[in-house]
């Protein structure tokens, strides 16, 4: 019986070009179920490590759609427990509380998501790995990504044929637009594709929107469509967002010591040292906090970097003082610049 634990993802999964294409779908189902039936344990993010999501199906000689769907199981539980708490009963589209022995219908908004997982399971059951391409211990995210990528590419080309833009597709250019030959833009999570060229006739056919992580090229997800955005952190100015994985890594936001709200480096509501990450209170807390609290949390900042304009606190400046100017060679300040910072 093939089965895979998709949440939490392993380090081997994160080292792959793909994450598992069902990871966001499983998380959204799990979050909804816990929100309804066990709100105290509702998960906050895919990578938090407190929950598990597992799915699989029975192996049979037929491996047809009906045998896969009739044996398909989707389980959710806490990482600290050996047995799953909730299960999706696919044939009847019900959620079973395996502790209480009760069932409720799958909420209507989750039915399309469960259906896509079913479609994936059928395609995965029909996929036979090429022994020359896959190692025995290959993380499941790799073959799963290969399977779902083929499905999404096929959907893209079929839509162009349905709309009458092309009569057939050239398999040699499967990752390029059949019309303008631009490289297709692909979400790293759900693997859906679209033509990025606004002048191409294929562009209006796909309503995919993208949300860039503030980590840029350092973000593991890299290209992610807005439908796959789960959790993460957004600055109060709403201009900067980091995915949940980069949020856990830290270093992209300053936080007020009083209210702990996140602020990006371009935000004027909170200013902090780009070296040691020390920060003052945000404007709201500075006005509300008693004078002794505001003074206790005050960080004296000296002149900004002449190149990236990042501020630095007085202790950091004094630690690196050299003559009349201060030069700080940045080794790893996360979001700090990688230049030589000159403070006067």
Quick overview of this protein structure:
The protein has three domains: 3-126, no CATH class; 145-205, no CATH class; 253-343, no CATH class. The protein is 25% helix and 16% strand.
Describe this entry's structure for a reader.
It is a single chain. The protein has helices at 11-14, 23-37, 65-71, 111-125, 141-162, 244-249, 283-288, 291-296, 314-319, and strands at residues 3-7, 51-56, 73-78, 86-89, 94-97, 102-105, 185-186, 193-194, 233-234, 241-242, 254-255, 262-263, 301-302, 312-313, 321-322, 325-329, 340-343. The protein has a 6-stranded antiparallel beta sheet, with helices on one face. Strands 15-16-17 form a 3-stranded antiparallel beta sheet. The chain has a two-stranded antiparallel sheet with strand order 7-8. The chain folds into 3 domains: 3-126, no CATH class; 145-205, no CATH class; 253-343, no CATH class. A hairpin with a 6-residue loop joins strand 7 and strand 8 (193-194). With 344 residues, it is an alpha+beta fold. The N and C termini lie far apart (66 Å). It is globular.
Element order: H for helix, E for strand:
EHHEHEEEEHHEEEEHEEHHEEHEEE
Major beta sheet, strand line-up = 1-2-3-4-5-6
Number of beta strands: 17
| CA gyration radius, whole angstroms | 25 Å
Structural class: alpha+beta
- Tertiary shape: globular
Helix content: 25-40%
Spans of 5+ residues with little confidence (pLDDT < 50)?
322-344
| Total tally of structural domains | 3
Largest sheet: 6 strands, antiparallel
Distance between the termini: 66 Å
Number of helices: 9
Mean pLDDT: 78
Strand content: 15-25%
């Amino acid at each position: 019986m093939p089965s895979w634990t998709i949440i939490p993802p392993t380090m081997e999964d994160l080292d792959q070009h793909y994450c598992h294409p069902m990871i966001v779908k499983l998380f959204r189902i799990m979050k909804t179920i816990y929100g309804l039936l066990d709100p105290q344990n509702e998960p906050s993010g895919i990578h938090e490590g407190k929950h598990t999501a597992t799915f699989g199906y029975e192996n049979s000689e037929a491996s047809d759609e009906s045998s896969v769907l009739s044996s398909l199981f989707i389980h959710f539980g806490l990482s600290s427990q050996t047995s799953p708490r909730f299960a999706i009963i696919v044939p009847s589209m019900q959620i079973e509380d395996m502790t209480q022995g009760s069932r409720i219908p799958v909420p209507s908004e989750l039915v399309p998501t469960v259906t896509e997982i079913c479609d994936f399971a059928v395609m995965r059951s029909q996929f036979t790995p090429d022994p020359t391409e896959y190692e025995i211990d290959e993380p499941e995210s790799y073959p799963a990504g290969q399977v779902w990528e083929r499905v999404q590419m096929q959907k893209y080309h079929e839509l162009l044929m349905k709309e009458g833009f092309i009569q057939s597709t050239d398999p040699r250019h499967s990752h390029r637009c059949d019309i303008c030959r631009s490289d297709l833009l692909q979400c790293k999570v759900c693997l859906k594709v679209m033509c990025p060229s606004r002048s191409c006739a294929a562009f209006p056919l796909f309503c995919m929107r993208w949300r860039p992580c503030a980590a840029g090229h350092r973000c593991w997800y890299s290209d992610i469509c807005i439908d796959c955005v789960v959790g993460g952190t957004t600055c109060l100015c709403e201009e900067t967002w980091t995915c949940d994985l980069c949020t856990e890594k830290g270093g992209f936001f300053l936080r007020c010591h009083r209210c702990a709200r996140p602020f990006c480096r371009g935000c004027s509501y909170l200013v902090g040292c780009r070296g040691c990450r020390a920060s003052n209170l945000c404007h709201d807390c500075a006005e509300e906090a008693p004078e002794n609290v505001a003074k206790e949390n005050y960080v004296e900042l000296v002149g900004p970097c002449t190149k990236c304009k990042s501020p630095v606190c007085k202790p950091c400046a004094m630690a690196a003082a050299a003559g009349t100017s201060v030069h700080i060679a940045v080794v790893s300040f996360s979001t700090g610049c990688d230049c030589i910072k000159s403070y006067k």
